[in-house]
Design brief:
The chain contains 5 helices and 19 strands. By secondary structure, it is of the alpha+beta class. The protein has 2 domains: about 50-230, D-amino Acid Aminotransferase, Chain A, domain 1; about 230-345, Beta Barrel (OB fold (Dihydrolipoamide Acetyltransferase, E2P)). It is globular and about 60 Å long.
């Protein structure tokens, strides 16, 4: 996978485009030192639409797909805030990233990126990230996590969301050039996109992200960003379990649901991937969430239904004709604050 831009070893990404500020505005009384655009308190993230194959053509750039927590890092005149995808303040959970942000040398900025913990081969490891945070419900601060920043939404008084991606990434790359810390630039990769995907898969990476280079930053899933995965992995709501007298922990499988509008739809179950200790925790927690009325219609023996509270990250190989996950495997639980990450069935390719 050849990178078009490498830290310290190759020339800066070439671009003949120049970022233009918006017309000068009156100073915001609440932010008197920012003469241009008031700094937003939060920007809803741009989300990638799942596709089975990468797009082709000069309009697209490609990056590694990182497996971690989506974060927005706000560098503000009076400090740093780290905001999760769901809008929660997790500054205290990522002290190394917050400290690095303070040393960027800018008065104000908003960086969009993914917090990850890397394994010995430089691959993002979601399980290791969860462990570093103390597991689901834990309050531990992760000292191992780093941020791979892939977008710059605001910079020293300028709102960049209306600027094309290529310019935003050019500015971000310059900002992070030579910055060897807990914030790193998420490099773009060039070459044939199918080969890039195959190379990512051979290296054990999760996949690639394709982004339209000329588009402004749009919140939500607009199709400007696409994700193509080696092995599909998404977050689903656990809505119960199948009891088992032979499985360790008493759980044969977890019952899963995806979002559909304001409600839920069943996507089947998962019976592999969790260890005995996981099963004991899951059963104990789900038993506290028992409900007689299933969240989604389900039939079967020995089913225990639960209120939609636990969010599981699931690997799977595709979808069956009747809308269930194929060859699903449990990876771990996400924080309850990650409810915004639960898969929406409308996003199914």
């Amino acid at each position: 996978m050849r990178q078009s831009r490498k830290r310290r070893t190759s020339p800066l990404l070439q671009s003949d485009q120049i970022a233009q500020s918006q017309p000068r505005r009156r100073r915001d009384p609440a932010q008197p030192n920012l003469p241009f655009d008031p700094m937003p308190n939060r920007i809803e993230p741009c989300l990638a639409l799942l596709k089975s194959s990468p797009p082709t053509g000069p309009d697209w750039i490609y990056e590694v797909k990182w497996d971690g927590y989506r974060l927005a890092v706000h560098v503000e005149p009076d400090g740093v805030r780290i905001i999760t995808r769901g809008g929660h303040d997790w500054t205290s959970r990522f002290p190394a990233i917050a400290d690095a942000a303070k040393r960027l040398g800018v008065r104000s900025a908003i960086l969009d990126g993914e917090a990850v913990v890397l394994d010995g081969n430089g691959r993002s490891d979601f399980g290791a990230l969860q462990k570093s945070l103390g597991g689901r419900g834990g309050k531990r601060a992760s000292t191992e996590a780093i941020l791979y920043a892939f977008d710059l939404l605001y910079f020293d008084g300028h709102d960049l969301t209306g600027t094309e991606l290529s310019v935003r990434r050019h500015l971000l790359g310059d900002l992070l050039d030579g910055f060897d810390s807990a914030i790193q630039f998420s490099e773009d990769v060039s070459g044939d996109p199918d080969e890039a995907l195959a190379n990512a898969c051979s290296l054990g990476l999760e996949g690639v992200i394709a982004k339209h280079r000329d588009r402004p930053y749009h919140s939500g899933r607009t199709g400007d960003w696409l994700k193509i995965k080696c092995i599909q992995s998404e977050s689903f709501m656990v809505v119960g379990y199948e009891q088992s007298s032979v499985a360790r922990g008493g759980i044969g499988s977890l019952l899963l649901a995806a979002r559909r509008g304001s409600g839920w739809i069943s996507v089947g179950s998962v019976g592999t991937g969790f260890k005995g200790r996981d099963a004991v925790y899951l059963k104990t927690t789900l038993d506290k969430l028992k409900t007689k009325q299933p969240v989604v219609p389900m039939k079967g023996k020995n089913l225990v239904f639960a209120q939609p509270t636990l969010i599981a990250e699931i690997e799977f190989r595709g979808w069956t004709d009747d809308g269930n996950l194929r060859h699903a495997s449990y990876k771990g639980l996400r924080e309850v604050q990650d409810n915004a990450a639960v898969f929406d069935i409308e996003d199914k390719p």
